[in-house]
Design goal:
single chain, 485 residues, Arc Repressor Mutant, subunit A, 3 domains, ten-stranded mixed sheet, binds zinc ion
Length: 485
């Protein structure tokens, strides 16, 4: 690797969150019975004609705008011809020389450095079906599920401007956040909602020309993207160092064996015989319509993160964690708004809430924002201590009760009334006459013992500060022979 630098580009496919497919009315739900979400259009039966899904175009434009790309008022669908068992038409409807959005960029933070990485294009295309390989009692068989055929995808292509596997990881993470914030895609890699192909080449440091590159497909986790790039960079460096040329080829990542295997020599665009899709009109978008979509762009992760730091006074680390998911940032803002205390809202969410939510790992929070806000208000008013609040929170998370209900069911409340505290302290003192007398004779460490008795008597509900000051007041009184204040 010494003397070389890596040049990495990403090609990301994200499923759009539409209810129906890109060119037909079939549903897009994940996990349905095989071949139940199909029709003549997505099965490519003769005579069936595609009709473009407006919502898919809106979502794609939204992502393009979020990536600062230019939305083209005129774009063209093209047929990408290739045979694959899960592609019944033998071509995929995609976009080629006239994509929906061109140019654009996003920011990537890696190792404390923030860099702008250019986006080449964002275009719409349809997904293919899925082959299911079985090796069971019926022997080795391959079944085909066409449910995914025609599900809308956007393809986002970056310029080859990334320099390291960790930067590629950071870009994917930033992009996933944008997809999730815009509501365009779940960005869920495990369910195939987000897929990534990478291309990588090496060149000598200082050289401008690009070396020959390989493409790695089938990367279904952030970890695999990073690992596959590390593997391939090392492999290419080994070849180049030994004076062997790197072949232009497509590799498949085998996560099980932690290595990339050759699939085929790299195909070129002309291999696909792209031509304009004759069954669809050119996609013409009006400027007003594009502006309208643009106006629905939410506050994006980067902007939100800076606002949390600058206006709400959160530490940058907290802001980054909270803005990691839109639902989490929304949840935090609601608690902060209801309590007027962003910092304590953030502290609670960063600890108790995330710890409890992690087990479920969804966007459902263990306690609603309103209930959490009420709990924080109880702490601030001194009705319960911060320590009690953690137990109350655990109960609320388990039962769904409001803070008030949980506190009263648990019989909790903090004794903060000075007169009530004096009664309790007096009772403890009269139950322990010997300790009081010993204390008066100078055994000062009995103070701690008496504090313990007070906490025991109140089942931990005494405000420690108040208990301490009343006990001191009473004991000093004992010493001065003035017990009856
Ligand atoms: Zn269909």
């Amino acid at each position: 690797m010494k003397g070389f630098e890596s040049v990495i580009g990403l090609e990301i496919h994200a499923q759009l969150l539409t209810r129906s497919k890109l060119f037909c009315g079939c549903g897009t739900g994940f996990g349905a019975e095989p071949n139940t979400q199909v029709c003549p259009v997505c099965l490519g039966l003769p005579g069936a004609l595609p009709v473009l899904n407006r919502r898919a175009v809106e979502l794609a434009v939204l992502v393009g705008e979020a990536l600062h790309a230019h939305t083209n008022t005129s774009s063209v669908f093209a047929r990408k011809n290739y045979f694959y068992p899960d592609l019944p038409k033998n071509y995929q409807i995609s976009q080629f020389d006239r994509p929906l959005c061109s140019g654009g960029h996003l920011y990537v933070s890696d190792g404390g450095k923030r860099r702008r990485v250019r986006v080449t294009r964002v275009h719409l295309e349809e997904d293919a079906g899925k082959s299911v390989h079985l090796d069971d009692a019926g022997g080795r068989r391959t079944l085909v599920d066409f449910n995914r055929c025609g599900v809308p995808l956007i393809e986002i292509v970056t310029e080859p401007e990334l320099r390291s596997p960790s930067e590629a990881h950071a870009l994917l993470k930033a992009l996933k956040q944008i997809l999730e914030y815009t509501g365009a895609s779940s960005g869920n890699m495990e369910e195939g909602g987000l897929r990534c192909d990478v291309n990588v080449s090496l060149r000598r440091v200082g050289e401008r020309a690009l070396g020959s590159k390989t493409e790695i497909k089938n990367l279904n986790s952030f970890r695999n993207v990073e690992r596959a790039l590390e593997y391939e960079i090392e492999r290419q460096a080994g070849l180049l160092a030994g004076g062997t040329a790197v072949l232009n080829e497509t590799l498949m990542w085998d996560a099980g064996r932690d290595r990339a295997v050759s699939m085929r020599s790299k195909e070129e665009a002309h291999d696909y015989r792209y031509f304009p899709e004759p069954d669809l009109l050119r996609l013409e978008l009006k400027g007003d319509w594009i502006d309208d979509v643009k106006s629905r762009l939410p506050e994006l992760p980067e902007a939100r993160e800076s606002r949390f730091v600058e206006s709400l006074g959160l530490p940058p680390y907290d802001a980054a964690v909270l803005c990691g998911r839109r639902a989490l940032a929304d949840y935090f803002e609601e608690v902060a708004r209801l309590t007027g205390e962003p910092k304590s809202a953030s502290n609670w969410i960063m600890t108790e809430v995330l710890r409890t939510a992690k087990e479920g790992a969804t966007d459902e929070f263990p306690v609603t924002a309103a209930n959490l806000a009420d709990l924080l208000t109880l702490v601030r008013s001194g009705r319960i201590s911060g320590k009690m609040a953690k137990d109350v929170f655990a109960r609320m998370a388990g039962t769904g009760e409001t803070a008030d209900d949980a506190v009263s069911r648990m019989g909790l409340r903090q004794v903060t009334d000075v007169r009530e505290m004096r009664t309790i302290v007096d009772a403890v003192l009269s139950e322990n006459p010997k300790s009081v007398a010993d204390y008066a004779r100078g055994k000062k460490k009995l103070f701690g013992f008496l504090m313990g008795r007070i906490m025991e008597k109140t089942a931990g509900q005494a405000s420690p500060t108040l208990a301490e000051s009343v006990l001191r007041e009473r004991l000093e009184g004992v010493r001065e022979g003035d017990a009856n204040t």
